[in-house]
Target: C-di-GMP-binding flagellar brake protein YcgR, contains PilZNR and PilZ domains
Amino acid sequence: MAEGASENLVSNPAEIASLLASLYRKHASITVNFRGKSQHYASMILDLDREEGVFYLDEFNPPSGHKRALSGEPFSIRASTQGLSIFFNHCQLLDIIKEEKGAIYKVAFPKLVKHDQKRQAFRARVLRSMSAPITLLSYERGEPFKGSLVDLSNGGCNFILNELVDPPLRDLEIFEELTLDIEDFERSITVAAEMRRISEDEQKEITSCGVRFINVDGSTQAEIDRLVMFLQREALRMDVSRQ
Model:
């Protein structure tokens, strides 16, 4: 099952406000385009007012975007964060607030928003009979942790560390190197990862973890995709042999 996207057109004002609020809370970077122009401008949502139906944008960068905004040119906005992609157009400034650190743009809520949500990636399980060691390394901590892979998707994995980590692992902690070394797969894969799930079992003295891969280049992502397919084929082959 490949990772895909579910597309929706949102026109309900309350839903539109919630989408904009999500971008605001996550400090998402916003790309601004003026109609008929190829230049992209960067900004972010600084605040929003649900009752008035407006939101406030930071001054556009590069500075030529500010000149276009002053001239009243309509623009579109595109933003993406944590699997959520939002696009809307026909935006125009209602007001410009001059601050010491730059301009702030007041913009009306859009009437229609295109909203894409990535579906959860398929997770390929690792067979119990398969050797699937992982090594987790944080440059800050120094000593690497050893464990076993439980399952793998295109965007992350779950694994078990053979110890109770001290000092304890932290949610969103960054590990510069997570190395997957799967039996019968031709090469190991090393990728940076962000800790997303931590569960300790003091009786068994193990730590169950879930991570999200980050800063993945194209060639490494291709290797991860191939490894997911490899694990799927191995699981299917085992299921067929049992029939």
About this structure: Confidence is low (pLDDT under 50) at residues 1-6. The chain has two domains: 5-118, 124-242. The CA atoms of residues 59 and 103 lie 5 Å apart.
